[in-house]
Batch of 2 targets.
Target 1
Amino acid sequence: MLSVTHVGPGPVPLDADQVRIPMRDGVRLAADLYLAAPDRPGAVILVRLPYDKDGSYCFMPTVSRYFTAHGYHILVQDVRGKYRSEGEPEFGVNEPDDGYDTIQWITEQPWCDGNVVMWGDSYYGYTAIAAAISGHPALKAISPRVTGSQLSMTLRHGDGTREVEQTSRKHYFTTHYVDADRYEWQPDWSVRPLRDALEPLFDQLGKRSANFDAEFTGDSRFVPPPVKTLADSTPVPALYTIGWFDNCAVWSWTDVRALRREPAWADHLYLRLEAIDHENYWLGHAPVGPENDHGIQAAALERMLPRYLDPSIEFFDAVLGRSGDMPPQVCYEVCHGEWHTSTAWPPPHATDLQYHLAPGALAEEPVVEQSRLVWTHDPSRLIPSAGANPFAMLLDRADLAPIGKRDDVLRFTGPVADQDTDLIGAVTLTLRLKAPAGATIHTRLLDVAPGGQAYLIAYGQVRLDTEVNGELVPIDLQSVAYRLREGHRMALDIMSSNFPEYVPEAAADADPWTALPGQPVTRELFTGGPGAASCLRIGSSDIDELRRDAATAP
């Protein structure tokens, strides 16, 4: 018998008025209304989420009171099919239209002055992006945090590679998208085929998730509109908050790259880059003790709220002309350092560092001698992910030093920093590889302390759609603002698994969820020689340009 906790809706707070808002098809969505001043029309913050407007997980009553204390009315709505709202739970299907209809309803109420803004994390940040796509003229600004328009999707890069699929999307459907409620449980990730690790939940409940089943039938209903839909929509001021340790940051950066290529959007795009993970744990507290765990301690949550909410309030105030100037285009926190501002990302003062891979080393100068390095991927010995929960990787911030001692990991270590050194900008890696189609390449950039402990700075991964035989493969480790402290060193790990955060490798024509583990396989990496072969860059390198070059290489 599985251990499953069934979580239904929490009680409606006494200071909230629950309303039911009709959508264009007659379905009514439940929402809680908190008024800053009942007798005065004002701007409204709209939050639309699938995690219970009244539940403890997202602490929306506490968030709502903070917003009202700053002069905003707030409406918190259960999305279609979730908790007290009518309809079917359908991931990503109805959010543009339901967002539009909700905004329209808000503007017709006497307590709204015609201005609506939207805020939210993860899926409830995605609903803000979806509402922006809908184009309602009353939506004046959005502040999506740790999210993106392609949330949970496996992205294709156009150069013969794609992202490795995260296990979280299918697991999420078993937890949040079976019915209106939530089912908290932990799969046995050792089960194979991998799909069978998730099926016991349905067996025990006696019902299934249409969202989950569609993953295996080719049904594309639960796929968000492509990022081009957002880029082609009417721009609104948008403050994207991205966590340096957020496992969903790949979708945030996908939006940022797409929007900054559009002149109209580029002027409306603002970035806040923080040393947080997806659950908003902060690097300065890692590993997080009970006294700083906002998930279990009310006092910790109260201390977190200004850092969590004030940037969005100040952004909304500026957009609506309530007070203050617009923020800098980019505000970023240097891990183990200070906050800085910039007119762009990467900033003009990006570090532009380049490290050349050599056997066991990250060399600052080009390596003349050519080397062939080999590692063997064994599907029965998968390399563990960096922490028990990828959404909260700072909660227990794992020491990854032992991983580098495995015989299926290539570790490259850089020189000792003789002073504090800030690593600022985009992080890209090009690897000259020999590997078959279907192979997965996982990489981690690490901070190695004088005592030998190794902690994650950034990571990236690709799945090869085509065989490579000595060609360069670009890998995006996204971006960093990280202080490598005096006496510390950088290290880079290369391997072929990162489980259970990512699905295991499978043959090119196989589904990793239904395939059985294969035999150990060898990968080859070539370093040194003429040109920039296998090379790590930190600074202003452009992953899109590297991918275009790879796609057109002979």
Note: The radius of gyration is 24 Å.
Target 2
Amino acid sequence: MPADLVLLSARLLDPGTGGFLPHTALAAERGRISFLGDDRDARALAGPGTTVIDLRGAVVTAGFTDGHLHPVSGAERTLGVDLSACHDLDAVRAALATAVRELRPGAWLRGWGLDPNAFGTAPVSYAALGPVLDAVPALIDLFDAHSALASERALELAGVDGPRAFAQGSEIVCDAGGRPTGLLLEDAACELVEAVAPRPAEAEIRARAAEVLAAMAASGLTGGHAMDANGDSLAVYAALEADGALPLRLRIAPWCRPETDDAAVAGLIALQGTGGALWRVDGVKLFMDGTIDNGTAWLETPDCHGASRHAYWPDPQRYSRVVAALHRAGVPTATHAIGDAAVRHVLDSVEQARAGGGDGVGGTGAVRHRVEHIETVPDDTVRRFAPLGVVASMQPTHCCEFTRADHTDNWSRRLGEERAGRAFRCRDLWEAGARVVLGSDWPVAPYPPLQVMAGARHRRPADLSLPPHGPEQALTPLQALQGITVSAAWAAGEEDHAGRLAVGHRADLTALADDPLRVPDTELAGVPVVLTAVAGRVTHRAAAL
């Protein structure tokens, strides 16, 4: 049977070993790599319907998988004005003023990517923005996607006029007089205003998601671990796949929040394994805390403002029982845990779940649980990941883009010197034997995988304008490559057929103009992506090919 795809004149880099294979050609059939050898033999496998591409010496490796991203909800979130490049209040005000001038009378303004560092040492509030949003209903997502800033008019329309109690770790921030400042912390608070803001039409969300996913493919991604199924996400994936417009292989983890009762947990279990050829529900996403920047993380001792003292789950033991139930059902969990107390509790819960029954660590059917983010933890916590078989899912560009080596940023000031000095410990976790998976958490940080790998290697912002934060935590070139290939496959329980270049493995492939292991750290993000393929189908092809 003829091959579906034949790649010629290639350098084949196996991320499992970090070495080049003694071959120049690859063929794929029925979604799997079916041949590795020389160009002449590969050409013989081509038929009338085969896609044959001469790569002219490009480096082909296993396809890049983003270990943590939000394709559809992020596509919707980023429809508003982009504030991610605004580093001070003057820039924020100017961008908002431009957007306001383009609004229809009475229309809502949506924005995203607002960095609290732009406010300096002042509190994040609508008052700090001045008159630019006067009488304008506006809701602006902060960069961490765990908080939002609402204008005075938006609060009025939502009926938010003071503090409220929530069934999760959320807060309407108020001044000393009990008046809302506009800052809304965590989902339950944000949803009060989101409920009255108009949503984009379904067709607009689908079109935007298709645009984002195509750009992700062009950046080198062939897959992603999608950490939500919010809104109509699953229907969007199904529709895009039906139209032949889904260019990534996606593993999706719907949310389980503190208010999720036993019946809803059973529903999440029943949802597992559903999906299509390129997307499926596989896991559940939970939250143990919020963010350090907002003071909603869970720390062993409070931050320098006396905040970050509580778990996102009002009853952390309820969280532990839910993890145990999911573990018994064979469902992997991915828990957002940023602070040291949150990470400790997640590891305690996994340890208790394993002791209580299930298939344990190491077996073929072992449930592979994950911790997402892990921004500040002590040595004894680092050492617990490997024995428990818990994946460390890290986003190095969060450190690169939002913190500073001199600790003058909001994140570091809140933590203080000691805890800020143990930030994003990618290298320590790796050397302690943990499986470290790399991702972007897009739209929190940019998704291009070469930028993610570069950040893991140099620990500096993309524009290289600042010195590295924690250079001792930098990964080697091979570790960074494995973090987005081999480790991602292991986290999904797919290491026997994904994440490497081998016959029988998935034909999910990324081709680059240069060797990612030899390109200098500061130049890696600029290496051209010449081709991506998923299941042997080309999803991006450079114009020069």
Note: The first helix runs from residue 39 to 43.
